Amino acid sequence: MSQDHLDARRRQILDGARACFARHGYEGATVRRLEEATGLSRGAIFHHFRDKESLFLALAEDETLRMSEVVAEQGLVQVMRNLLAPALPGAHPADWLGTRLEVSRRLRTDPEFRARWAERSEQLTTATRERLLRQREAGKLRDDVDVDVLTSFLELVLEGLVSHLAMGLPADGLGPVLDLVEESVRRHRRSG
Q1: 172 backbone φψ class: left, alpha, beta (φ>0; ψ -120 to 50)
Q2: How much is the pTM?
Q3: Same structural domain for residues 97 and 75?
Q4: Which among 5, 42, 64, 91 could disulfide-bond with 86, CB atoms 3.0 to 4.6 Å apart, if both were Cys?
Q5: CATH number at residue 12
Q6: What is residue 141's three-state secondary structure?
Q7: What span, in angstroms and rounded, lies between the C-alpha atoms of 11 and 5?
Q8: Composition of the chain by helix, strand, coil, percent to 5
Q9: Would you say 7 and 49 are in contact if contact means Cβ atoms under 8 Å apart?
Q10: Are 154 and 165 members of one domain?
């Protein structure tokens, strides 16, 4: 098999698994359900991924990479906006949300997963911090608050948004809230 074919097969597995984990959660995403969601056999799935946890971690890592790319170009608030209204055709915020919720749940309940995830989650924090540093250098970011504090603030807002959506609360009207979040990290010209 060519590398292009292997890459396409891996993408097919990740796309099907994303929908399966979002619909059924980690525990409910049985091998049979993963086979149905991907259209592939157990052997084909686990040829690419050692086990279900490795598949889930690869999926979560893939989501983190996508988010990091958006953060690098447009900032973490844009990731939140995309969650409310996907910017790309074919994007499914419910699937991303499902993955994110499963990551959060497993971080709380599974110490081994927490250790494995810690290595991967730093990518989003790093992308956010680097974006904020570039914004500060360009004179667009407030300079009275440490960049690490602003990074933590934005990550906490993201987690709060995820929790809000997970509870099934309405997303209508959250655009102005995100405008406020974005405005709170911008540099303001002092009048005087």
Answers
A1: beta
A2: 0.78
A3: yes
A4: 91
A5: 1.10.10.60
A6: strand
A7: 10
A8: 80, 0, 20
A9: no
A10: yes
